[in-house]
Amino acid sequence: MSKKLNVIDLDNTLLPYNSWGKCVMEFLQRPRCFMPIIYYSLLRGFGLLSRGMYQKSLLGVIRKTPDYEDIMRTFGESLYEDVCTPLLRFVQEETDEGTVVVLCTASPEDYVKYLSAKLGWQYVSSTLDQDLTHFNHMFREKKITAIQQRYPRKDYDYHLAMSDDRKDFGLLKLFEASYLVRKGRWKEIYPPEGEQERIWPDL
To answer: What is the pLDDT of residue 102?
Structure first.
């Protein structure tokens, strides 16, 4: 019997803000990180770095911070306090004993793994190896590929998906029930199951 699969976006969905931006601001206050963060942020602002290369570059900077793993554990677990309680309750209502819930995000594994553990969920996120060479930015089509590879349809019933980003439509349309999230409110993408097209609702 297939397990139900629920896939929930993190930034501006489960959380009311961008967690990666908050993480960067935390390290911006540390003297040794300040100038490199400003430098890479300027490159990003002028369009000279992609979103993925920006994250990879900053991870290479902040990982040199003493007690980095402890800082990330504290930061990741602290995000739980800001989780949208009504949305979390809704997901829990759509979850039974045989359901796998996955936090799917472009934010880095460095702290996502700690928030996921706090939630009791699995996760799919951006990753950078310890050598700072192989970076996998979990963005757009890569989310689709990762979910389908790790949770194949032959083993899982694609039940629920939620995201704030219209560019995640390719992922959301794979699920029986999919929701657009805006400012702590969510609305199902219509028309219902059985129709060929789904329409983004206005929120």
So the answer is: 98
Domain 3-15+83-188, architecture per CATH: 3-Layer(aba) Sandwich (3.40)
Q: Where are the alpha helices (DSSP H) in 63-161?
A: 68-78, 85-93, 109-119, 141-150
pLDDT band at 180; cut points 50, 70, 90: very high
Domain range summary for the chain, segments of one domain joined by +: 3-15+83-188, 19-77
Rounded CA gap, 159 and 176, in Å?
Answer: 5
Q: Give DSSP secondary structure letters for 167-178.
A: GGHHHHTTSSEE
d(CA 195, CA 192): 6
Q: Is the pTM of this model over 0.70?
A: yes
Amino acid at position 181, single letter? V
